[in-house]
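task queued by scheduler; priority normal; single chain, no ligands, no partner chains; default sampling; output format set to C-alpha cells
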Amino acid sequence: MPLKLRSTTDCQLDVLSFGECMIRLSPPGHQRIELTPVFEAWAGGGEYNVSYALSRLGLRTAWVSRLVDNPLGWFIRNHARASGMPPHDAVNLGAAHGALLQSTRGDTSMVTWDEVKHVMKGGSARIKR
C-alpha cells in the first residue's frame, strides 16, 4: 500500500512529538556538583529537543507531554514558548519531571522515581547513595 502524504497547506504542523522533558541542573563551567554554590537550569529531552530545534529552523512544531502545575512545569512551558513551540497540548497531571544533575562530561547523577516520590511526599531532597 503506497504512503499518501498530505500537502503542507492541509496540515497545521510539520512535526508533532510526544515525550518527556527534563530539567538539567549544571554547575557553570563544568564545576563539580559538590563544589558549586549555583546551578544553571536547562530544559531538554529527546523528543522535546527535536521539536525545539526544528521550530528554531522555521518548521511548525508542537510537543505533547505531561507537565506538573508548579514552577518546574512553568519553567519547561516558558522555555518551549520562547522557541516558538507553544506546548498547547501539555497536560497538567501533577506528575514530577525527571531531573538530571550534571557536573563534568560523563558524570551524571539521575534521580530515581522512588526518590522523586519521596520528595513529593515532603521528604528531604538530599540524595544518599
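post-processing summary
- The CA atoms of residues 17 and 50 lie 8 Å apart.
- Helices lie at 46-56, 71-82, 113-120.
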